[in-house]
């Protein structure tokens, strides 16, 4: 039986540093990402893909702000859904091309995905995740007063809206994702960490203004679709101790207890490597056999254990 792997893609999988973000820029990046993922499928792995959406949802938020006098602005959960559809569409088209070129008879498919969070999550009392563009002080203060949004000054670069980043507790569409993967579809799901929703008393869901970390949502997705492996692909080849310092040390195979020690020593930055290491450790802690953090261009090698950081029990 083929092994199921959930792959969480970072920002560089859709937009490279220095690119403007045109449709063609993003399509080109997605095509080279897909070329890496198709190697895994060709090697016999069953892949479920998830991805970030920071720059894309940022652009959609700018469009809301710029166009709000002509057409109504949409709330953040709707913007998140738009970004999942747009990014998923690019992936599905580029996947199909690559699968045809490899002679693989599989269908790619994108699922707009909601991820449940708790309305009691302490993050709601303490918004920390910056979203969207930078604004001047006057605009930020006006938005704060008119809407009750939280805004912060970001190290001299201007003002930015911050939203809560609650913990994902359930992938709402998990069963559909699992069944589609069982039937052989290449599923793209839970983009941007999923659309954050809270459950109502009657069992229905309501969107909230928040952002879920895509690595933590990816881990939950991996658990809930019973993946054998969980892989986070980013723009560095491995996880490092003393990252960026003269005594920097890149980590290969590390067991859970050793990684816990490094985490406690503060080697992994909040907002970048921190959530990746936390998500990878959680997957192994929850019974997964191996979690991998590696660079996108070494995806298959990392999956086979010769590159990247491998976290094992
Ligand atoms: P992604 O878009 O893939 O989620 P992030 O920028 O959030 O990417 O996280 C990857 C970045 O984490 C790397 O480019 C690197 O600069 C940074 N980083 C912070 N701490 C470490 C560490 N200990 N080891 C490796 N990279 C680290
Ligand atoms: Mg990130």
From TrEMBL:
InterPro entries, per the entry: AceGlu_kinase-like_sf, Asp/Glu/Uridylate_kinase, Carb_kinase
GO cellular component: cytosol
This protein's record includes keyword Transferase: yes
Domain Aspartate/glutamate/uridylate kinase: 3-295
One GO MF term attached to the UniProt entry: carbamate kinase activity
GO process annotations (BP): L-arginine deiminase pathway
Keywords, comma-separated and alphabetical: Kinase, Transferase
Key word Transferase present: yes
Family designation: Belongs to the carbamate kinase family.
NCBIfam families attached to this UniProt entry: arcC, PRK12352.1
PANTHER family (UniProt xref): CARBAMATE KINASE, CARBAMATE KINASE-RELATED
Protein name: Carbamate kinase
């Amino acid at each position: 039986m083929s092994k199921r792997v959930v792959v969480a893609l970072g920002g560089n999988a859709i937009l490279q540093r220095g690119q403007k973000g045109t449709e063609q820029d993003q399509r080109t990046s997605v095509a080279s990402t897909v070329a890496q993922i198709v190697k895994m499928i060709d090697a016999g792995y069953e892949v479920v893909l998830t991805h970030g959406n920071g720059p894309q949802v940022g652009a959609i938020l700018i469009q809301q702000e710029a166009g709000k006098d002509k057409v109504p602005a949409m709330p953040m959960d709707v913007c998140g859904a738009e970004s999942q559809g747009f990014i998923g569409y690019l992936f599905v088209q580029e996947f199909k091309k690559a699968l045809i070129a490899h002679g693989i008879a599989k269908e790619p498919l994108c699922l707009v995905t909601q991820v449940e969070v708790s309305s009691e999550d302490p993050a709601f009392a303490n918004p920390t995740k910056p979203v969207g563009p930078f604004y001047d002080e006057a605009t930020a203060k006006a938005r704060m007063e008119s809407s009750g949004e939280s805004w912060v000054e970001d190290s001299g670069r201007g003002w930015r809206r911050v939203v809560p980043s609650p913990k994902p507790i359930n992938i709402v569409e998990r069963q559909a994702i699992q069944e589609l993967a069982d039937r052989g579809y290449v599923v793209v799901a839970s983009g941007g960490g999923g659309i954050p929703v809270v459950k109502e008393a009657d069992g229905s869901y309501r969107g909230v203004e928040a952002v879920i970390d895509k690595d933590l949502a990816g881990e939950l997705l991996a658990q809930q679709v019973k993946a054998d492996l969980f892989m986070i692909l980013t723009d560095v080849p491995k996880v490092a101790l003393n990252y960026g310092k003269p005594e920097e040390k890149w980590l290969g195979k590390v067991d859970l207890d050793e990684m816990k020690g490094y985490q406690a020593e503060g080697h992994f930055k909040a907002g970048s490597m921190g959530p990746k290491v936390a998500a990878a450790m959680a997957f192994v802690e929850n019974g997964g056999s191996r979690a991998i953090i590696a660079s996108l261009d070494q995806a298959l090698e990392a999956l086979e254990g010769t590159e990247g950081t491998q976290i094992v029990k």
